[in-house]
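A student in our group prepared the protein record below, which I am reviewing. I have pasted the whole thing underneath without changing anything:
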Amino acid sequence: MRQTYPSLQTASTGLVVAIVGFFSSFPIVLKGLSAVGASAEEAASGLMFAALAMGLAGIGLSLWKKLPVSVAWSTPGVAFLAAAALPEAGFGGAVAGFLFAGALTVIAGLWKPLARLAASIPAPLAQAMLAGVLLPLCIVPFQAIGETPLTALPIVLTWFVFRIFSRLFAVPAAVIAAALVTLFGTGFQVPMPSSVLTSPVLVQPVVSLAAFLGIGLPLFIVTMATQNIPGIAVLKGYGFTPPPGPLFAGVGAASVVSAPFGAPATCLAAITAAMCANEDSDPDERRRYWSAVIAGVIYCIFGVFAGVITAFAGAAPPLVLGTLAGVALLGVFASSAASALEAADHREAAAITFLTTASGITIFGLGAAVWGLVIGILVQLFNQKLGR
């Protein structure tokens, strides 16, 4: 392939991809990290390294394969963390789970049987598990409207109005509304860190079976099923021929390296991959990978200032961050719920998976997402045995 160079069109696409990819979901990352025990400093470090991991992985894989490999943090994965029970070992236990999930992704890239095993989980059940994880998060905006209408309504209404014109920018617009709510709510006295540059925090992993099975395994499954495998499919849909193994191994390695600094799973993107891979990115398909490269550079810049973003989010009035996370996940919830219940032959098992996951139960130290998937698979196997 002859040498290509970025165009103004790929540069503008990369900027839009980075803005949408970062500001549409960073509240979910912060909420997820806080839910599994991260302090404000650890959450800022985790957000920074999550952005650096997806930025550098996107740059490296796109330049290596000359493909528009858009990389993201796992939004469904951090949504799972936001709904998960606090690990007994605290944030160190969660970090051990992050490492395990990343290692499994690397293995899936290098050893095809594991990738096939992950892909063999019935899609309706994986989507039902995701919908069950998202349900408690997606009802928060409506609870907030009842409890704190002056803070929640501006965010929800901004999101609703902007989605009429542009679904891509609805959540970034809601982020701006939340920032204004925070400024007015604090009398324009938002405390900022002493340095605008984020300080890395190295977290000692606390290895345990509960961390592996309760955090790492479901994080791996939900990320593979809803991000990595669809990400490959999106690129194929636009006429590219991505090699799944090296791409899985690449994002898995990025997860392993960034996990000790508090970052959850890094994965292939789906929505932003479509933005980089279609003809709006550049008429010349040989140049489209530059959109992913430029997005990666901007992700890294955003990551460096993650401490400021985290401090601002920490000063927000109650339920502001939950409202933001909820509206950001509504589309994902609708899509996953519809996919889960669409196939009649999986509907009962998917419904049980969804309800078990949404229940929030914890048994033997394993959270509801694990039990939802296990029980759903058993019900599906039983139904198949009976010929239902």
